[in-house]
Amino acid sequence: MQRRSLLAVLLCATFASPSLLAQEVIKLSTTTSTENSGLLKHLLPVFEAKTNTRVHVISVGTGKALELAKNGDVDVTLVHAREMEDKFVEEGWGVDRRDVMYNDFIVVGPESDPARIKGSKDVVDAFKRIAGANVKFISRGDNSGTDVMEKGYWQRAAVKPQGANYVSAGLGMGEVLNMAAEMRAYTLTDRATYGAYKAKTGLAIVVEGDKRMYNPYGIIAVNPAKHAGVNYKGAKQLIEWITSPEGQARIASFKPAGEQLFFAPLR
């Protein structure tokens, strides 16, 4: 019996291996927001089944995601920092950039709102008021797209919280939201990740609706002329699918708790 069972296992492995070997791997670097929000788990299995591929995801801040792409460690990158993306393409590291989707940034904080900014639609004024109050602000501090936007708001405000009131975490968005909840602090977040962590953190949205908080995402293939070993074919497959009507409909259908978190790019 044991010999028959072993033989059956070996035969299954033999017949399964050709399809496994044929399955192409596409390496994707992306921001923590696409991973933490649950969007990629909603999207990628559909693409993988359709194309007989496997997407290996590396979820980091936008700066690190672009660095991995620049080094040829991934085939394609999905990020949200347009100036950094444009520079990446202009320097020849990336090709075939496409707009994928957008959502927005929001400022969240404790329900008690000690800085008295709830309901504001002026993010720069809100940052000034946070800096002027004796409250904590948690920064991503990781050169992510969110971190870049936050630093820009402080620059426009021409002020920043001092000393222990400003915490540079060097962490992903989900971890920063947890820190803000524990420390009763404010932070800047994308709406999608906040939606995934809202229940466990109890943080409230205090600032939203400012046009300066628009948050677009782009996808870029690594330039095969820079790194001959990258899977450019696979990168193009993912780019074409995620920007196709099917891919866009799948993004629009991502509605945890009934709320749509990502939208088709503005044209």
TrEMBL record:
Please tell me whether the keyword Nuclease is annotated for this protein. no
Top-level taxon of the source organism: Bacteria
Q: Which UniProt keywords apply?
A: Signal
Q: Which residues form the signal peptide?
A: 1-22
Segments forming domain PBP:
28-246
Q: Which SUPFAM superfamilies does the record match to this protein?
A: Periplasmic binding protein-like II (SSF53850)
Does Signal show up as a keyword for this record?
Answer: yes
Against Pfam families, the record matches this protein to: PBP_like_2
| Record's protein name | PBP domain-containing protein
Specify the species: Massilia timonae CCUG 45783
